[in-house]
Amino acid sequence: MMRMIELKPIRVFLAVVDHQSFSAAADAMKLAPASVTRIVAQLEKDLGTQLLVRTTRQVGLTTSGAEVAARFRPIVETFDGVIGDIVQARKPEQGRLRITAPVSFGLQVMPDVLAGFRLAYPRVSLDIQFTDTLVDVIAETCDLAIRVSGPPLDQSTIWRKLCEVPRRAVASPDLLARIGPLKEPGDLSTEYLLSYSATNEAELWELSQAGRKSSRRAGGHVITNNGDLLYALVRQGEGIAVLPDFITQSGLRTGEVVEVMPNWHVPSLWLTLAYPPYTKLPPLVGLFAEYFEGFILDRPDLKST
Fold this sequence. Notes:
Blueprint: H1 7-19, H2 22-29, H3 33-47, E1 52-54, E2 59-61, H4 63-90, E3 95-101, H5 103-108, H6 110-120, E4 124-130, E5 144-149, E6 158-165, E7 167-171, H7 173-179, E8 195-196, E9 204-209, E10 212-217, E11 223-224, H8 227-235, E12 241-244, H9 245-254, E13 258-259, E14 269-275, H10 283-297
Parallel strand pairs: 3-4, 3-5, 8-11
Antiparallel strand pairs: 1-2, 5-14, 6-14, 7-12, 7-13, 9-10
Helix pairs in contact: 1-2, 1-3, 1-4, 2-3
C-alpha cells in the first residue's frame, strides 16, 4: 500500500524545482542540504517514479516530475491561501496595506484618516502613494484606491461609492472686479477658464439651472491634473476653475475666493473605493474600507447632503 503523501515533502520538492538547486532550496527552507535530498528521495520512492534529473550544474524535471509539480502547486497555494485567510480573519489588524489617493484629497483629508487609523490599528503598516492619475489598481498592484472622479467606467475593478463630492466654480474677488459680473454661462470668457484634465484636452464644464443646461469648454492655456495648482492660480487671480469643496471651502469662508454664478449647478464628483477583482475582499482591506467610510460619514463638509 502506498504511503500517504504529506504536504512537507511536496513543499520541499517544489522549492527544489523553483530554485533548480537542492542547496538553494535548503537555504530557502532553512533545512540541511542532506535533509532536502533525503526528503525528495523518499517522495520519489512513495510515488514510485523519478521526479528530478540531477547533474553537476543544475536540477531538471522528469516528465513525471513536471506533472507532479503542475498538479500539486495549485493545491499547496490553495492550502496556504486558506490558512492565510483564517489567520487574517482572526487578526485583521496586522499586515501591510497599499493605498493610492488623489494628491489634493490626500493632502487635505488623509492625514486625519491615517492618524486615526494608525491609533486604532498600530500593527498595520501603510504604504500610501498620492497620484492624480486614475491608476489601474491591477497593474499598480495596490490593495485599494481612493478615487475622486466621475462615475467609474472601468469594468475590471470592484468599486464602492461612498458619497458625492460637491464642486463649484471659484475665482478671486480681484479677478471678478476686473472682468465684471458673471451671471450666465455665456458670460464666461474661455481665456479665464482654467482646465482640470488628465489629458491634453481642455475641460468641458457642464452647468445646469432649474432645468436649463449649458456647456462651456474651458481654456487650453492652463491644463493640469492637480487641483492644488489650479486653486493657487485662482487665488492669484489667474482665472476661474471648477474645484471640489474640500479644496476651496477654507478660501470661501475667508473670502479669499468667491463662487462664480452660484445659481448654476456643477455636477458633483464621486468619492469611491476601487479594488482589484478579489473573489473575496481581504480582511485588512475590508477593515480600512469600513474605517474610511465611517470617517467620511462623520465629515459632512466633505460630501453632498
